[in-house]
Hints:
The protein is mostly helical. It contains three helices and two strands. 62% of the residues lie in helices and 11% in strands.
Amino acid sequence: MTCARGHSSWLLVLTYRLGSMVVASSKSGEPITADDFGIGGALTVLMKDAIKYASAASTVADVV
C-alpha cells in the first residue's frame, strides 16, 4: 500500500500512531492527541529524518 506521493505503508502507520499519541489533558481530564493540535504530520517528518539518519549511522558502523 502506498499513498499518492509514493510513501510506503510504514510511513502512513507512523503518521497515524504519532497523531494518536496523547500529549496533554484538558481541564476536564480528556486526553488531547497530537492530531488535536494538528502536529501529527510534523512529528512524522521529524521522526522520518531521525530514522533515516539513525539507519545511515548504523550502516556506517556495520561497515567499520
